Amino acid sequence: MVSEKLVYRNTKYIIIKNKSIISLILRSYADLDKKKILTVTVNKPRIILDIIDTCKLPQTSSYRKINSLIKSGLLIPNGEINKKYGKKVTKYVSLFENLEINIVKNEISVKAKFSEDACYSIFRMMREKIVTFQEQQNVSSSKNYQVVQTEVISIPSDSMIPFLLKEGIIKA
């Protein structure tokens, strides 16, 4: 079994036992800069410049680390704010609200509580992709059938997103 869903005091936790997901989590939280980034975005979605300022991190390496966290699915886009001249800037929120790492007889597991903001954002992104897909599809019809041409939306295999979908933590 890869994960178990638990409920404590009306709060949903899961136990993650998947080694590649645990490795991804441990590598990210072992990096002090990434840990700061994830910590400041737990309860408050922030834009990248706000994250960098709050964490007091160098800008160049911070962008690289933030992009790595976004790609891995540990930092989730959570809406946009309007800036000057009509420019929109994305806010980000940490996937996890709380993590507990357990090691018993060389077996590592992670008990995780997912951020509600992050889960809603992932669901909203999936819904928007579906709505966008339905609005932009090219349909050509013949006598008895329709052919629908679509674009493939790829999610990196080393991301948390496929794991969340596969385990039913977030339902499509």
TL;DR of this structure?
The chain is 41% helix and 31% strand. The protein is α+β, with helices and mostly antiparallel strands and 172 residues long. The longest helix is centred in the last third of the chain and has 21 residues, at 116-136.
Report the helical percentage: 40-55%
Give me the count of strands.
9
CATH superfamily: Winged helix-like DNA-binding domain superfamily/Winged helix DNA-binding domain
Percentage beta strand = 25-35%
CATH topology-level name? Arc Repressor Mutant, subunit A
- Report the sheet with the most strands, covering strand number, pairing sense and barrel closure: 4 strands, antiparallel
Terminal-residue CA separation: 21 Å
Class derived from helix and strand content: alpha+beta
- Major sheet: arrangement of strands: 1-2-7-6
What's the CATH architecture?
Orthogonal Bundle
Average pLDDT, rounded to a whole number, is 78
What does this structure look like?
It is a single chain. With 172 residues, the protein is of the alpha+beta class. It has one domain: Winged helix-like DNA-binding domain superfamily/Winged helix DNA-binding domain (Arc Repressor Mutant, subunit A), CATH 1.10.10. Helices cover 41% and strands 31% of the residues. The protein has 6 helices and 9 strands; from the N terminus they run E-E-H-H-E-H-H-E-E-E-E-H-E-E-H. The protein has a 4-stranded antiparallel sheet with strand order 1-2-7-6. Strand 4 (75-82) and strand 5 form a beta hairpin. The two termini are 21 Å apart. Residues 6-10 and 139-154 have low confidence and may be disordered.
